[in-house]
Design brief:
The chain has about 160 residues and is mainly α. The chain has one domain (about 5-160). It is built from four helices and no strands. The longest helix is centred in the middle third of the chain and has 37 residues, at about 40-75.
Length: about 160
């Protein structure tokens, strides 16, 4: 999709925002009593946290998330070149790298920092966060954030559509 560095940055920015918002909605719903008692208030609260969490997503994905995700996908795919399979494996492998990375950020910020938890319990907070978030992050990336990001990207850069 992106063909220039500017397009890559815009695509990364859009993906960072859509992933951060979806995951913040999910985590905010869990934090406020679970998905079964979710209210509309969650959407606004998630927007507040997304206002800074997207930056962590953007930085981490550009420093190592995307590179490692592509590397892992390349190892799994080998010489496979089916575009759908390449997209699926690249997305899944990127989530495989990004979820533990962002879970570490979340564990530090929300369980230890703002949550007032013990630094000695940080490994447990991190593992809990990874286990809680990975299934949603994968599904959100494949079925919501990815398609929405590509749609917005094509609207901003229509000349990139083959």
């Amino acid at each position: 999709m992106p063909k220039t560095k500017l397009q890559g940055a815009v695509f990364g920015l859009l993906m960072s925002i859509t992933m951060a918002y979806g995951m913040e909605v999910y985590n905010m719903a869990i934090k406020t009593g679970g998905l079964s008692v979710m209210t509309n208030k969650v959407f606004g609260e998630a927007l507040l946290e997304t206002s800074y969490m997207w930056l962590f997503v953007f930085v981490i994905s550009n420093l190592w998330g995307n590179r490692l995700g592509h590397l892992v996908a390349g190892k799994v795919l080998g010489k496979e070149n089916n575009p759908l399979w390449v997209w699926l494996m690249t997305s899944a492998a990127t989530v495989l790298v990004m979820c533990p990375s962002m879970s570490a950020v979340a564990a530090v910020l929300f369980s230890v920092g703002l949550g007032g938890g013990s630094w000695g319990e940080l490994p447990a907070y991190w593992v809990r966060t990874v286990l809680q978030n990975f299934p949603m992050a994968l599904l959100w990336n494949l079925f919501a954030a990815g398609p929405v990001t590509r749609l917005l990207f094509r609207k901003i850069f229509p000349q990139t559509v083959s």
